[in-house]
Design brief:
By secondary structure, the chain is α/β, with parallel strands linked by helices. Helix content is 37%, strand content 18%. The strands form five sheets. A six-stranded mixed β-sheet has the order 8-13-12-11-9-10. A hairpin with a 2-residue loop joins strand 9 and strand 10.
């Protein structure tokens, strides 16, 4: 067999000159294209052009250069098959033993705020994926490298034994197919959005590993955390951790739940979450006042909880946070004094997220055994609703404020969900019960005497009037619910009997 050949064509040129120089020292003849060839030549590394191999120039602005039998014959031939070797000889094709390729920067291109469709389309690589897939398919005979992180391993094995091991080649080939699949998934998503297809016949999604986790929901379950490329910056996946130990699986879920609730508010707000349900929500003139109310809402459950605040944490708020055992605090920023106070707790995780960044709408995906459920996120607000008041009494201004706060929170509570609230804090939360009155009884019991004159929010309609009855006896004076039950008249009559103002929104907020 003639001299060993390596084909190098990379968009990411990190480490490529050192890698190429090592290959040359190991007896490889290098073939390259365009920008990569120029970069290698500038470093004095001998390299020949793909055009020299194919006998055909790059055409169509470089769109066609490597799609040629002189390249793909060298990539796909079986090096121990006499018939393949005979055909290569007949056609003057030389086998290629190593391929190092990475692709046009499609993701980086579409991430630009001013990207045009033409730019995006032009950055869809054709020759690169073709070479990678061909080489990965033929990994029994050649080594294919797509990730600069693997350059060192390949060189070490080549130096040690003159070739790479089959195990390494298979791992590298698997990485190639993951890489090209992810690349195509991003293109498919972009083109599907461009074509305004809402439910395509197939759905291919891709995520990048952010971190391996110690375990999942329980210590016997393995787990990992993946991040969506170009996903929302307003996300735990893109949070910056300033302090504390590594996040756990449950931390991440709870932190996301807290973030989804706190983003409902523009005024200073604080949210405390335990096991993905809010245990306390407060608003105020400032973040200190907001957190004080969130804490007072449930000073027992907040222990070991996750706190999300939508304004900078100042020194006074940090001092109050420091008094409590918490797992995580999420905020847009922390003052220097606040950081000094909170970082005194070794294990407390402190996260920052850009609250003022655009909140990119994303699909919510839930796996089931053997399948995937996909839906839009629940972004419906009272501003979107068609409000009706079927009772004799209208809510007062203060009751409206309490109803609005309860409605913002209840859609983030596991169904069946009931929230009792005042104008600036939750007073009781009933979550995840098998019947609605059961959730109401939990929320009302937690609120206690504070339920007198408070509002009650329900995520779905009342199937009968028992929830209204329980609310009235606890002192609730205003209720907000979707309406739509065949027995709405019973609930309206019961509300009128007790002088309760009841609001219908026309929209439910189930959360399973």
């Amino acid at each position: 067999m003639s001299q060993k050949r390596a084909l190098i064509s990379v968009s990411d040129k990190n480490g490529i000159t050192d890698f190429a120089r090592e290959l040359v020292s190991l007896g490889f003849e290098l073939i390259s294209t365009g920008g990569t060839k120029k970069a290698l030549q500038e470093q004095g590394i001998p390299v020949m052009s793909v055009s020299d191999v194919t006998g055909f120039p790059e055409i169509l602005e470089g769109r066609v250069k490597t799609l040629n039998p002189f390249i793909h014959g060298g990539l796909l031939s079986k090096h121990d098959n006499p018939d393949h070797l005979k055909q290569l000889e007949e056609h003057g094709i030389q086998p290629i033993q190593l391929v190092c390729v990475n692709l046009y920067p499609f993701q980086q291109t579409i991430a630009k705020p001013d990207v045009t469709v033409a730019d995006a389309i032009e950055n869809i690589d054709i020759g690169g994926p073709s070479m990678l897939r061909a080489s990965a398919k033929n990994h029994q005979y050649l080594t294919v490298v797509v990730d600069p992180a693997d350059y060192g391993t390949v060189i070490e094995e080549l130096k040690a034994q003159g070739t790479t091991t089959f195990e390494t080649r298979r791992k590298l080939a698997a990485k190639v197919f993951r890489h090209t699949a992810a690349y195509d998934a991003l293109i498919a998503e972009y083109m599907t959005n461009l074509a305004q297809e809402e439910t395509p016949e197939t759905l291919t999604v891709t995520y990048d590993l952010k971190q391996s986790l110690r375990y999942g929901e329980n210590p016997h379950q393995q787990a990992a955390f993946y991040r969506k490329p170009l996903g929302s910056t307003f996300s735990i996946a893109n949070a910056v951790q300033l302090h504390g130990k590594e996040l756990s699986y449950n931390n991440i879920n709870d932190a996301d739940a807290a973030l989804q609730i706190v983003k409902e508010f523009t005024e200073p707000a604080a949210v405390a979450v335990k096991h993905m349900n809010p245990c306390g929500v407060g608003t105020g003139e400032n973040v200190f006042e907001a957190f004080t109310k969130a804490f007072e809402a449930d000073p027992v459950s907040i222990f070991g909880g996750i706190i999300a605040l939508n304004h900078e944490v100042d020194a006074d708020t940090a001092a109050k946070l420091h008094e409590i055992f918490l797992e995580i605090i999420i905020a847009p920023s922390y003052s220097e004094e606040a950081l000094a106070t909170l970082t005194a707790k070794k294990n407390l995780r402190l996260l920052t997220i850009p609250f003022n960044d655009a909140k990119k709408p994303e699909l919510k995906m839930t796996t089931i055994e053997g399948g995937l459920l996909v839906q839009e996120q629940d972004r419906f607000t009272l501003e979107d609703a068609t409000i009706t008041v079927p009772t004799k009494r209208q809510p007062t201004e203060e009751e409206w404020a309490a109803l609005k706060l309860g409605w913002k929170v209840v859609k983030h509570v596991k169904s069946n969900a009931i929230v009792v609230s005042s104008k600036d804090m939750t007073l009781g939360v009933g979550a995840g019960q098998m019947n609605r009155v059961g959730s109401a009884e939990i929320a009302l019991k937690q609120a206690g005497k504070k339920a007198e004159g408070a509002a009650l929010a329900s995520d779905a309609f009342f199937p009968m009037d028992d929830t209204v009855e329980a609310a009235a006896k606890a002192g609730i004076t205003a209720i907000i619910q979707p309406g739509g039950s065949i027995r709405d008249a019973d609930s309206i009559k019961k509300a009128d009997e007790y002088g309760i103002a009841m609001v219908f929104t026309g929209v439910r907020h189930f959360k399973h």
